[in-house]
Design goal:
Layout: E1 2-7, E2 13-19, E3 24-28, H1 35-45, E4 48-53, H2 65-72, E5 76-79, E6 91-93, E7 98-101, E8 104-110, E9 119-125, E10 134-138, E11 141-142, E12 145-146, H3 155-168, E13 178-181, E14 199-200, H4 201-207, H5 215-224, H6 233-241
Parallel strand pairs: 3-4, 4-5, 5-6, 10-13
Antiparallel strand pairs: 1-2, 2-3, 7-8, 8-9, 9-10, 11-12, 13-14
Helix pairs in contact: 1-2, 3-5
The structure holds fe (ii) ion.
Fe (ii) ion binds next to loops.
Length: 243
Amino acid sequence: MFFKQLPAQESSLSYFFGCAGHAMAAAVDVVAGDEEWFVQQAAQAGVRITCVIDTHVHADHVSGGRALAQRVGAPYCLHESARNFVKFDFKALTDGQLIDLGNVQIKVMHTPGHTVDSMCLLVSDTRRGPEPWFAITGDTLFVGAVGRPDLAGREREMAAQLHDSLHGKLLTLPAELEIYPGHQAGSACGAGLSGKPSSTIGFEKRWNPMLALDRDAFVAELTHTIIPRPANMDQIVAANIAA
Ligand SMILES: [Fe+2]
């Protein structure tokens, strides 16, 4: 297993990981303009990029995922629910789906709340065992914060879904599991994010103030103060779903 985190525009965090032995890699949450970095990393590691995934359709930055996928001849992947609003063909991922990258395996976990199509990716090294080594949590769980629920409206309903995704799914994973979020401090996709770019499930359970709240309190807190929307959000979303 190799693994790299790339700090990108809009306080985004992108990921490149895979199996050197089988020369296969995944690129996750690629920001437009960073495609060349992934191509160079793949060349240096001597691997092929065999899948490109966005954890959700982004509203704060133009994705480079589709362009990178086309450039390297890999499928561009989103959660299947994005079919309801994305205007081009993509590889639709389903909850529980496994993606093999040689000895590295990704398990898809659908975690709606920030958006309807939000996913977390649980990544294992199958030579060590089936349990995940880390989770890429997108905009579902940040270090010290959670994703905002309001970008597509229905914020109380979405906040409740986010609570269910967190407590029913993500937080049931082992305390020692590392988490790698989609953003760090400075992002418009949540409020109160730390500038530290990784954490663990256990540390967040202990220190993330949102995770101690019951469902009603969580919904009230998350919808109480809505931070400004990402600049140019409507144009960014339009670019990310355009045919
Ligand atoms: Fe987001």
